[in-house]
């Protein structure tokens, strides 16, 4: 992890939508504990079954939640960026990781001691309500991705994943290798290479040396499965 920057968040302008929804009084109380950190590619933030000591509110970084099987294989079950937080279990009264969380796209995030978040949830009904709504959306996202993994072809899932990533990093270009995409989607690297190659050939994306660039957002949405629209609509409804 790179050194923390010495700046304090401004209410309503933190760069993280969940933080910006905190009641003003609670935001002021938490401000002194929030520090901005730079997260690196594949940096682990939370380990399954291990104590959660810090939670993260991404601003430009993108974080994947992963389920790890006994043989070491991993499948992505959630994606978190500017809209949310990493370490949600803490807000729900659980002090250990329910899944693994790693940085998928390097960038910045606000870091907060887990204890400070627990105290805020216990102290403020407004904070409690906010994180309960976010938890509801996050749970539905996890369920939708599980259904997507089981029912939809890799090409549509890849489009959905690229769209969700594009929304959260808020830039057209971000680092990603075929190998890592395969790990996140739970398929072989060769399968991702074929699917990504078709998207590039159709002019939807451009790939170069571990970098993905979104070229045609509208057509990428058309090529995606229904899951992208379902998840996006849910966020707009529950956390407008």
CATH topology of the largest domain: Jelly Rolls
- Global mean pLDDT: 91
Relative strand content: 15-25%
Task: Compute the separation of the termini in Å.
Answer: 32 Å
**Which sequence of SSEs, written as H and E, runs from N to C?**
HHEEEEEHEEHHHEHHEEHH
Structure classification: alpha+beta
Fourth CATH level, the homologous superfamily of the largest domain: Jelly Rolls
In which range does the helix fraction lie? 40-55%
Describe the structure.
This protein folds into two domains: 17-148, Jelly Rolls (Sandwich), CATH 2.60.120.10; 153-224, Arc Repressor Mutant, subunit A, CATH 1.10.10. It is built from ten helices and ten strands. The chain has helices spanning 17-20, 24-31, 88-91, 114-123, 125-151, 154-169, 178-185, 189-201, 217-223, 227-238; strands at residues 35-39, 44-46, 54-58, 62-68, 74-80, 100-105, 107-113, 173-175, 205-208, 211-214. The strands form three sheets. A four-stranded antiparallel beta sheet has the order 2-6-4-5. A three-stranded antiparallel beta sheet has the order 1-7-3. A three-stranded antiparallel beta sheet has the order 8-10-9. A hairpin with a 2-residue loop joins strand 9 (205-208) and strand 10 (211-214). The chain is globular, with a radius of gyration of 18 Å. The protein starts with 16 loop residues before the first helix and ends with a helix.
